[in-house]
Amino acid sequence: MKVYQLENANGISMRFMNYGAAVIAIDTPDSRGEMDNIILSLSTPHDYTKEKTYLGATIGRVAGRIRGGEWTFPLEKNEGDNHCHGGTIGFESRFWDGEPFQEETRVGVRFTYHSPAFENGYPGNLTATVCHSLDHENNWRITYTATTDATTLFNPTNHVYFNLAGSKENTIHNHTLMIQSDAYLPLTAENLPTGEIKNVQNTPFDLRAATPLQTILASSHRDIQQSQGLNHPFVLNNQQHSAATLTHPDTGRQVRITTTAPAIIPYTGNHFNQDFTLSTGQKVTKHAGIALETQQLPDAIHHPNFGNIILQPDQPFYSETTYQFSLK
Q1: Which of 4, 47, 143, 214 would be a feasible disulfide site paired with 109, CB 3.0-4.6 Å?
Q2: Cβ atoms 235, 192 nearer than 8 A
Q3: Is the bond preceding residue 61 a cis peptide, omega within 30 degrees?
Q4: Kind of pairing, strands 83-84 and 65-66?
């Protein structure tokens, strides 16, 4: 197990590990200058090998669910009858090769993993690289690249859970969320897209203005009730522009997300039920954190209008997401 620490001139500190190419801590100041870890973390790096939490991990080869594990080649069915997050032992449970680097304006670590053909059912020998960097403008940038020697599927993301209150609050209820999206995808009881793309107008999914998460989570809307919170893909209005902003008014902390990906999935930790102990010493509780997963739409292989997640040998993959930390 190897741990890498990145710091910038503004006092922001991040820690990563080669298991899952994961981020395991992000320490930032609040409006009073007090430092705290703003993501859900476990106490030690080795704890991540004992618990299946996905906290801060790289997800792949394909994030989200694939109905029936069905494609040209059968994929592992690891969540009922479906394939989820790349399989039982996906990218989050693999040891990556880490290479730290330092440049004039940023520091970072570049992780590489060679996924053999038919790992969890996926054809093609695939080489994936995830580069994490932190610059002096408080930008945490993730770039994903990949190549394959045979036609395969690829749709990665990162599963970091934010709680900008740090150790002061054990839920995200007092945060606000803004997502620049006019459309969201309803889900089945198995958390698969129904195939519909619905307008957010006059629904609790209209997050085009900053909205308290407490208001969203308390909504009686069928789609919110079924999932016990947010777990729904949003189609972003503008790639390369501000996709989402998460704010905790009491501490002043804010995270603004920009991405080249066409969609974002806010997941509010709806399944957490004291399953494991966090680095704060508290048991994880429902809505303890929020993941903001940038990616292609899930189960795209079964919905032609959801975008293309097929990766060809002559078409290298590239995607980039930036999280900018600031105070409001």
Answers
A1: 4
A2: no
A3: yes
A4: antiparallel
Which spans in 250-326 are helix H? none
In what helix (H) or strand (E) does residue 83 lie, and over which residues does it extend? Answer: strand 83-84
Three-state secondary-structure class, residue 52 = coil
Joined tokens for residue 210: 């900053």
Backbone angles phi, psi at 165, to 5 degrees: -75, -10
CA-based nearest residue to 13, from 23, 28, 3: 28
Is 311:148 a contact under the CB 8 Å cutoff?
Answer: yes
Rounded alpha-carbon distances, angstroms, from residue 273 to 49, 114, 145, 285, 326: 19, 34, 35, 5, 31
Other beta carbons within 10 angstroms of residue 268's beta carbon come to 27
Q: Which DSSP helix (H) or strand (E) runs through 226?
A: helix 222-227
Confidence of residue 240 (pLDDT cuts 50, 70, 90): low
Q: What percent of the chain has pLDDT over 90?
A: 97
Q: Measured at the alpha carbon of residue 107, what is the angle toward residues 101 and 110, in degrees to the nearest 5?
A: 50
pTM: predicted TM-score of the whole model, two decimal places: 0.96
Spatial separation of the C-alpha atoms in residues 207 and 39, rounded to whole Å? 22
